[in-house]
Design a protein that fits this description.
By secondary structure, this protein is α/β, with parallel strands linked by helices. It has seven helices and 14 strands.
Length: about 260
C-alpha cells in the first residue's frame, strides 16, 4: 500500500484539563492525502502540531466534539496566529465543524477578542452539525459523519472516511452511547476516551472496560484509548479493557502516530 493511500493519525494530546509535562489536552490530527483534519484543540495543540511537522496553516478542517476548555481553548490563539501578517499566513479556508451552539460560542469569543480572531468569510466557514441525529458532509477526498453522544448537549462524535473506504472515529467525551456504537460500526480505528479506571467511573465519561464493550459491539478493528486522567497511570488500563475487547488495543501517548 502506497503512502498516498494511507490515513495517518497523530495523537497530539492524550491528556485532560490536568496540567502535565507528558500529556497535552485533547487533540488528534488526521491526514488524508493533502488534507489535514484536527479533532479538538486543547492547550498545547499548536506546539504539538509543530512537533509533528505540521503548522496551523496546513489544517483545513477542525472538528470540535464539545465546548469544554480542554477541547477548545486553543481555538483563540489558533485563529489569532492565522492572522499573522508575515510571509507564512493562512491562504486556504478553514472549516470548523461542531454541534449546534457553536456559532453562539464563537460570538462570545468575538465579544472578548474582537477582530483579532476574525478571519473573514473568505477564510472561515463554520458548520453546525445536527445535535439530534446523524449528520453527513462531503469534502474533496473524504466524508465527515457526526452523531450526538452522552456528555454535553452539544457533544458529538465524528467519523472520517476516505475515498478508499477506510475510516477513523473520534468519540470526544462521552458516557456509554448506543449512538457511538452505530457511528463506529466496522471502523478501522476508534479513538475513544477512557478518562478514568473502571472503579472510578463518573457520569459523562467512559472507563476502559466500557470503551472495550463499545468497540466490540461495533466490530472496531483497532481501539485507541485516550483522554487519561492521572488516576489512569496507577492501574493496568489495558487489562481492564481486555475484559471486553480482544482485538488490537493501543494506549495513546502524545505524538504517537498510527497508520491505516
Amino acid at each position: 500500500m502506497s503512502a498516498k493511500n494511507e490515513i495517518s493519525v497523530t495523537i497530539l494530546g492524550s491528556g485532560t484539563c490536568v496540567p502535565s509535562l507528558e500529556r497535552s489536552s485533547c487533540s488528534v490530527l488526521v491526514e488524508i492525502g493533502n488534507s489535514k483534519i484536527l479533532f479538538d484543540s486543547g492547550p498545547g495543540t499548536m506546539r504539538r502540531l509543530l512537533e509533528a511537522g505540521t503548522t496551523i496553516f496546513d489544517v483545513s478542517v477542525i472538528c470540535y466534539s464539545h465546548f469544554h476548555p480542554d477541547h477548545t481553548s486553543e481555538l483563540v490563539p489558533f485563529l489569532f496566529a492565522s492572522k499573522y501578517p508575515g510571509k507564512t499566513r493562512r491562504e486556504t479556508p478553514l472549516t470548523i465543524m461542531a454541534g449546534k451552539g457553536f456559532l453562539h460560542f464563537y460570538k462570545g469569543l468575538k465579544a472578548v477578542y474582537g477582530d483579532w480572531i476574525e478571519l473573514g468569510p473568505d477564510l472561515l466557514n463554520i458548520v453546525e452539525v445536527d445535535n439530534a441525529a446523524r449528520d453527513f458532509f462531503s469534502f474533496d477526498n473524504f466524508t465527515v459523519e457526526s452523531i450526538p453522544v452522552e456528555h454535553n448537549k452539544e457533544s458529538v462524535a465524528f467519523r472520517i472516511t476516505d475515498s478508499n473506504g477506510k475510516s477513523i472515529v473520534y468519540s470526544g467525551d462521552t458516557d456509554f452511547s448506543e449512538n457511538l456504537i452505530t457511528l463506529s460500526e466496522d471502523a478501522d480505528v476508534l479513538i475513544c476516551e477512557s478518562a478514568l479506571p473502571d472503579e472510578l467511573k463518573v457520569q459523562g465519561h467512559l472507563t476502559p472496560s466500557l470503551a472495550g464493550e463499545l468497540a466490540t459491539r461495533a466490530n472496531v478493528r483497532k481501539l485507541v484509548l485516550t483522554h487519561f486522567y492521572p488516576e489512569c497511570d496507577k492501574v493496568d488500563i489495558a487489562k481492564q479493557c481486555r475484559k471486553t475487547y480482544t482485538d488490537c488495543l493501543i494506549l495513546a501517548y502524545d505524538l504517537m502516530k498510527i497508520t491505516v
